[in-house]
Amino acid sequence: MLIFIEGGAKSGKTSFAEHFIQQRQGNRKVYLAAADPQDAEMIRRINSHQCKRQNAREQWVTIEQPFDLMQCIEQVQAGDHVLLDCLTTWLSNEMFSSGSWHVQTGPALMLEALLNLQKKTATLLVVSSDISHQSAGHPDMIQFLKVQGRLSSQIVKRADLAGMVNYGCLRPMKGEWQ
After folding, report:
1. 10 Å Cβ neighbour count for 139?
2. Which position among 3, 67, 152, 162 has the lowest Cβ density within 10 Å, counted as fewest Cβ atoms?
3. What is the largest CA-CA distance in the chain?
4. Spatial distance between the Cα atoms of 17 and 6, rounded to a whole number of angstroms
5. How far is CA 58 from the centre of its chain?
6. Could you read off the pLDDT of 50-105 as tens digits, one per residue?
7. CB neighbour list of residue 90: distance below 8 Å, 6 or more residues apart
8. What are the distances in angstroms from CA 135 to CA 11, 128, 145, 177?
9. What is the bridge-based pairing of β-strands 161-166 and 29-33?
10. Helices (H) and strands (E) in the chain — how many of each?
11. Full-model pTM
């Protein structure tokens, strides 16, 4: 099952996604963390998320993979319930920090990695930030917004469920949520 959750900054999207995965029965709960600890704020956020997972009802297996998701697929076991947090961070890492990004091939390789991961899992829940209303004066930011929008659309087209989270509340956009 492929699920896509989007929400603004501090909207509760990650907490919603964590709770959703924790409710899944059987198999491991895997947290695929895309954050790259580049500055003090990101380190603080990573530490906060790690602490929250350590205190969860069921144990999380954490895989930190800020670049090239294909590298971590072998660490995921068949039938795992996986939360990818977050697509926006992963895309930003790939576009601006990896050194190997190509606008023609990068998005397709990211989508291929997600679909390969989905084939192996019982649940793949992709969290993404809603950045569609961001102002974009710099050409790199304009390109980023376009790629983010296209990639999100391609994922939602393939998703079983999709929704927006605001104030910690789900607004279903696709599929039958239970």
Report:
1. 8
2. 67
3. 47
4. 10
5. 20
6. 666 666 677 899 998 888 888 899 999 999 999 999 999 999 999 988 777 888 89
7. 34, 66, 67, 69, 84, 110
8. 19, 18, 9, 32
9. unpaired
10. 5, 7
11. 0.89
Q: What are the pLDDT digits (tens) for 37-65?
A: 777 776 677 666 666 666 667 789 999 88
Confidence check: pLDDT of 24 > 90:
yes
- Cα dist from 9 to 5, 31, 37, 67, 166, whole Å: 13, 19, 18, 22, 9
Residue 122: count of CB within 10 angstroms of its CB: 17
Q: Which of 94, 89, 72, 88 is nearest to 151 (CA)?
A: 88
Strand-strand pairing, 169-174 and 161-166: antiparallel
Q: How far is residue 93's CA from residue 36's CA, in Å, rounded to a whole number?
A: 7
Neighbour tally for 128: CB within 10 Å:
23
Spatial contact of 146 and 24, defined as CB atoms under 8 Å apart: no
pLDDT tens digits, 107-136: 999 999 999 999 999 999 999 998 776 666
